[in-house]
Amino acid sequence: MNNRALVVVMALSLIAGAGISPSVRAEEAAEGKAYEVKVPAELAKTVEPSEKLAKAGKIVLCTELGNPPGAFLAEDGATPKGFNVDVMSAIGPVMGIRSEVVNYPFASIFAALETGKCDAVMANSAKTPARIEKYNFVEYMTMRLGLMVPKGNPLALKTFADLSGRRAAVLVSSTTERLLKAASEKAVSEGKKPIEIQSYPQYTTGARQLELGRVDAFIGDAMSIGYFVNIAGDKFEVGGMPIDPLTIGIVMRKDDSHMRDAVQKAYATLYKNGFIEKSAEAWGMKGLVEFCGAEVPCP
Q1: pLDDT digits (tens, 9 = 90+) for 154-170
Q2: Calpha distance 259→200 (Å, rounded)
Q3: pLDDT tens digit sequence for 18-57
Q4: Can you list the positions of beta strands (E) in 64-165?
Q5: Residue 9 CA to chain centroid, in angstroms?
Q6: Residue 113: pLDDT band by 50, 70, 90 thresholds?
Q7: SS3 at position 141
Q8: Helix, strand, coil tally for the chain in percent (to 5)
Q9: Which candidate in 104, 151, 164, 171 could, as Cys together with 192 as Cys, close a disulfide (CB 3.0–4.6 Å)?
Q10: Which distant-in-sequence residues (6+ apart) come within 8 Å of 75 by Cβ?
């Protein structure tokens, strides 16, 4: 394990985010449900919106409200919260318009974007070659992918190769699922057992399967694994972070460069005024991700 991976693994066991729920169980938002989010009081208009956004008076951002600490519902089952929600709630106001957050499962979130149900997607989406061909990205951070396992790691699961013949929970239609399927195919080609992949619509559901002993590992990103390790007390630990950092971005349609430019300027403003760092610290993300794009180019 290199030094960067070691720092990430150590940080995962130490995070303590403000306002984090003490349970891996989360209320589920209805698909397509829209939420008006609270406007951060300290924000003022500093960026011009695109003509389309100005005419609408709002920006509609799709996310998956079952992915803590990025975006999920508070204990009241009606209030979105999390790091991604903080950022989405601020993107509109710095352009002098409203932000509206709409919930979609990750498996259907890009279809919602393509059909115009939202202007942008912010759901820890990795910048992959296939997505670059179809969408515009505003890059904002990088983070690793890895394994969460029961405390003590009784099966010594550290890499995807170790999952041969084991059960693993993963988010459906995610980059993580794609990589896990590739690892399973590789295992089979080497004469080993395939990975029993169980795909779920929300990270919270996948983590719950590990808690109940229905899978041997939960596979996800450092941000989400860190959250679950923290709130579950002594139930979970990090098995390993074997996947090098992926670049994460806000995703928009390819045919609207004005939208991308406006969102990029809005995010850069939030980064420069300290809003991004403040939110990340509040949600226990320090040491788990690297921010980029606004002032430092992403890899």
Answers
A1: 999 999 999 999 999 99
A2: 31
A3: 333 434 444 567 898 999 888 777 788 999 999 999 999 9
A4: 66-67, 71-73, 80-81, 98-103, 120-126, 135-150
A5: 18
A6: very high
A7: strand
A8: 35, 25, 40
A9: 164
A10: 21, 27
